[in-house]
Specification:
The chain has 132 residues and is mainly beta. The protein has one domain. Helices cover 7% and strands 40% of the residues. A hairpin with a 5-residue loop joins strand 2 and strand 3. The longest helix has 9 residues. It starts with a strand and ends with a strand. The site of one zinc ion (ZN) has 8 residues, from loops. One zinc ion (ZN) binds next to loops.
Length: 132
């Protein structure tokens, strides 16, 4: 399951979420979408397949969250545990960072203290975390 960290501006209440290690699937259109766990006791047909793990991290240059693909399986798997095993096999923890897909700047896992993109004077501060 992914982990979500909520940050809020201490000046204007603008908020944003950093998401670590979210399972994703690839839609028939070729887009990445969140993989939703089937409800308990429900059988999905056709079964959803899971394609990999992604994060949404903070780009200090774009001043926005951007997607970072951590793991993409060659063949989509039937169970999400397979993407976590693939990540583990690569020695990943889920908190890896990488370049912003838009501007190439190094993405930040923790945007604590970064300037707010809305008011420009406030700073982002972590206010909570949850597992969706
Ligand atoms: Zn960027
Ligand atoms: Zn602000």
């Amino acid at each position: 399951m992914p982990y979500v960290y909520v940050y809020q501006c201490d000046g204007c209440d603008w908020d944003t979420e950093v998401v670590l290690a979210q399972e994703f699937r690839v839609t028939p259109e070729g887009d990445r979408a969140p993989y939703d766990y089937p409800a308990e006791g429900l059988v999905q047909w056709p079964p959803q397949r899971v394609s990999g793990l992604r994060s949404r991290l903070w780009c200090p240059r774009c001043r926005a969250t951007r997607e970072l693909v951590l793991v993409q399986l060659d063949e989509p798997a039937e169970h999400p545990v397979q993407v976590f095993l693939a990540a583990e096999a690569r020695g990943m923890t889920g908190a890896e960072t990488g370049p912003c897909p838009e501007c190439g700047a190094e993405l930040q896992v923790d945007p604590e203290g970064m300037p707010c993109p809305r008011c420009g004077t406030g700073r982002l501060a972590g206010i909570g975390e949850y597992e969706p």
